[in-house]
Every structure is written in C-alpha cells, then in structure tokens.
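Input chain follows. Return structure tokens only.
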Amino acid sequence: MLGSKIPRRGHGEARPLIPRIHGEVGSYSDRQFRAIKRKIQEEAGIPFKFKDFRPTFTQMTLDRNPNLLSDVAKQLGHKTTRTIELYYGRISDEKTFQRLDATWDSMYEEFDGDIEN
C-alpha cells in the first residue's frame, strides 16, 4: 500500500492525494487505486499515467508561489531544485511581469510618499 511506503521514503506523514469516499480514513490500496484510474480512463477516453501530472502540479504551484521551488522539488522526490528548474517548472512571463510590476508599484508608492512629505 502506498501509505506504508511514504514514511520509509523519508516523507513522514502525508495526506492522501485522493481521499477515501467510503470506509476508513486513509489511503487506497494499490489495487483500489489502479481500479479508480482505470475507471477515470474509461470515462474520459484518455489513457494516462499519474506521473503525467507532475509537470502540471509543478507549474501550477510555481505560478502561484515561485518561492516554493525547493518544497516542490522535495515533494517530487528530488534532492535539489535543478531537475525542477530544467524539466518541470517554467516561470511564466505573465506571472513574472505581474510580480515585478507589483514590486515596482509598491516601491514607487513608498518613494512618491517621501517626495510629498
């Protein structure tokens, strides 16, 4: 069962990615998880591997908060951020410009306030 492998990999306690709907609290067994995946594939008509979602998870997290780069690397099982920087996470230009604009706007407001006083 996946839940029993997490502590051995040094990740400690973790919340299940897909919580159980019925029965006890905890993770699904590997067999149950494969059955859920198979059902999703049948309904969607699209075959996939759960590993396919790693880039999406990484990009969405880093777009929201690029300071979480080292946390994302650890979550994905990497010892450094290098793999994330090279293969997964791309900081979008739009998000970059938004953060820079906000920073410069706040600096301008502070500077502008000093001139008026």
